[in-house]
Amino acid sequence: xxVTTEPDRSTGERPPELKRAIGPKLLLLFVIGDILGTGVxxxxxxxxxxxxxxAWLPFLVAFVVATITAxxxxxxxxxxxxxxxxxLYVHKAFGIHIVTFIVMFVVMCSGITSASAASVAFASNFxxxxxxxxxxxxxxxxxxxxxxxxLLVNLRGVAEGVGLNVVFTLIELSGLLxxxxxxxxxxxxxxxxxxxxxxxxxxxxxSFLLAVTTATSLAFFAMVGFEDSxxxxxxxxxxxxxFPRTLLTGLxxxxxxxxxxxxxxxxVVPVGExxxxxxxxxxxxxxxxxxFPIAALLPFISMFAVANSALINMLMASxxxxxxxxxxxxxxxxxxxxxxxxxxxxxxxxxxxxACALIVVLSLRADDPIVGLLGGTTSLLLLSVFAxxxxxxxxxxxxxxxxDHFRTPTPLPVVxxxxxxxxxxxxxSGRDLEQYVIGGALLALGLVLWVVTVVxxxxxxxxAGDLQDVG
Length: 471
Known about the structure:
Protein name: Amino acid/polyamine/organocation transporter (APC superfamily)
Transmembrane segments: 26-43, 55-74, 94-123, 135-155, 162-188, 208-226, 247-272, 292-322, 343-364, 370-396, 408-429, 435-456
Number of domains: 1
Strand content: under 5%
Radius of gyration: 21 Å
Mean pLDDT: 81
Helix content: 55-70%
Low-confidence stretches: 1-12, 467-471
Subcellular location: Cell membrane
Pfam family, one: AA_permease_2
Largest sheet: none
GO molecular function: transmembrane transporter activity
Number of strands: 0
Shape: globular
C-alpha cells in the first residue's frame, strides 16, 4: 500500500512536516546514548544477582539477540524510511488494523516503561547524590518532576532534544570510563577477585540455562535503544545510506562497554552486595577507591545517564504516536504539530501523562524493585514486537521499492524469531509474573484505545485500517 502526503481536507494546505536535523554523528550518539543508560547504571547488580559473577554472559547474549533483530530493522527502515517504525512494517506486511494498532501501542508502552524506569532510577541517584534519606513520597515527587522536565525539552524540539542527548551521552560515557578507570586501581592494588567473573551462582530452583535466560531477559533492557532510532527516520538526513553502519557501530560499542563494566563490577564488589544496591556502579567506585573525592561525582553522572534514557524514549514514544496518527491508526489530533517549533505537542503530552500515571501506580503498589520490574516489562514488550518484526521482514520481501536498501541474510530473521519468543515465554525466560501483569494491563488499555480510534476514524470519514496521511 502506498503512503501518500495529502493536503488537509478542511484547509487544502499540506500539514507541516518534521525537520530533518539528524546526521550520522548525531544518530550514532542517539543510539549509544539510548543504549548506555538506565540498563548498565541501574541493573548490573540485578543481573549479577541472577547468575552470580558471570554477569557479563547475559549482556553478551542480549547483544547477540539484539543485533540479529537490528539487521531486520535495518532492511525495513532503509526500505520504508518513515517515523512509524515497527507498526508501519507490521501493517505493510499483514494489513490488519488491530494488529498494527497493538504493535504500535506495545512499542509506545515500551518507551514509556523504559522512561519510567529511568525516572525512578534518577530519583534513587538524586537521593544518593544529595545525601537525602530516600522515602516513597520524596522519590515519587522527584521522579514526577523529572518527567515534567523531559516534557519541556521534548516540546522544545528534536534538535534541542538530540543536542541535549549529545551532552548527556558524553557525560554517561565519562561515567562508565570512570568506573573502568577507578576499578582498575583496585585491580592493580590486588583488591579485585577475578575468580568471581567465571563463577556461576544461580538460584537453586533454576538450571544454568534458565538462570541465564532469566538474566538475559532483564539484561535485554540494557540493549534496547536501537529500535528507537527508526522512529526518528523522518528527522534523519538520508536514512537509507547512514542507518546500517551507524546502527551496527552503536550496538557494537555499547556491547563492548557493557561487558567490560560488568566484569570490573563483579571483580571489585561481591555479588551479594552488588545485587542489593540500587546504584550498583556507585557502589563499585566507592568500593574500589573508598574516600576518593571523585567517587562522589558518579551519582550525578548516573543521573545524567538515566535522564538520557528517559529523554530518548519519550522522544521515540511521541514520534511514534505522531507517525501513526498521520497514518490513520490513531486519532488525528495526536498528529498535531506546533507550527513554529514543529514538534508533535499532542503526542508529547499524551505519552508524558501515561508515564506519570504508571510511576504513581507502581510506586504505591509494587513490592519488587521498580526499576527491575519496569526494565523487565520493557524487554518483554519489545521482544514480543521483535518476534513479529522478524516475521514481517520476510513477508515484505514480496514488496519491492524504487530505491536501494539494506537486505539482511534470510536465516537471521528466522533465528531472531526463535530467540525472541524464547525470551518472552514464561517457562523459558524465567520472568517475574508481575511483568506479565503490567504488560497485560497496558495491552488491555491498548484495546480500549483501539475501539476509541475506530470510532474517531469513522466520525472523520477515515476507514479504519487505511494507511494514508490524514494530516
